[in-house]
Amino acid sequence: MTSIAEDLLLLLLDDESGKPLVDGVKLPRVLAGAVLVELALDDVVAVDTEGKQVRKGRIVIRTEARPADPILAEAVERLRSGRPVKPTVAIEKLQKGLQEKLLARVVEQGSVSEERGKILGVFPTKKWPASDSGHEQRVRGPIRAALIDGLTPDPRTAALIALLSAADAAPKVFPEADKRAVKKRAKDIAQGEWAAEAVRDAVASVNAAMMTAIAAGGAVAGSS
Fold this sequence. Notes:
The chain has helices spanning 4-11, 26-41, 70-80, 87-94, 98-108, 134-147, 155-166, 170-173, 179-191, 197-223, and strands spanning 45-48, 58-61, 115-119, 123-127. It is mainly α and 224 residues long. 55% of the residues lie in helices and 8% in strands. The strands form 2 sheets. The chain has a two-stranded antiparallel ribbon with strand order 1-2. It has a two-stranded antiparallel ribbon with strand order 3-4. The chain has a single domain, classed as yeast vps74-n-term truncation variant fold (Orthogonal Bundle). It has 10 helices and 4 strands. The longest helix is centred in the last third of the chain and has 27 residues, at 197-223. Residues 220-224 have low confidence and may be disordered. Helix 1 runs antiparallel to helix 2 (26-41), helix 1 packs across helix 5 (98-108) and helix 2 crosses helix 3. It comes from Rhodococcus gordoniae. InterPro entries: GPP34-like, GPP34-like_sf. Pfam families: GPP34 (PF05719). Keywords: Golgi apparatus, Lipid-binding, Membrane.
């Protein structure tokens, strides 16, 4: 089974152009958010909202078990290597090198191909058009059913929708649908009761942190 971050990455790559639907500040942080969300869904990490185990608002690791997925396992080790941190700090820690690893994975799986080129014959570029969109379409199906047809999503689908909502990307993934309706439905699902309270708290904290990190990264990029 692919990870939530892999599925999110495929959703955020345009099948034809091979270019990301969100900018270079958002994408790595959204993917880091997806890693944290999956760890929360698997009850590996949680955000201590009451300060019972660590300082209030910081991430606590709930198990000594190592995730089978190497990317998730590395994320846990990074979080374990220092003091408990807030989700904003965790996202910055986890986003380093993550996008490249996930891209290599979806290329290896055959979902996309990597195409290299140059702008003006000088500046190197990369794009990742779809090679086999079968898996992505299977991921899109339940998301479309929830966002456009109004069906109730399962927790994994709801988590993906919450991440898309935090990145303001749901309308970009379904450009043929009514933009305002999709955006509102995604936000409603993100705020709904689709998982256990602890998981929903963690996802809400991660998404808020992700938006803060994106805004901070955008400000830095704009000033440079």
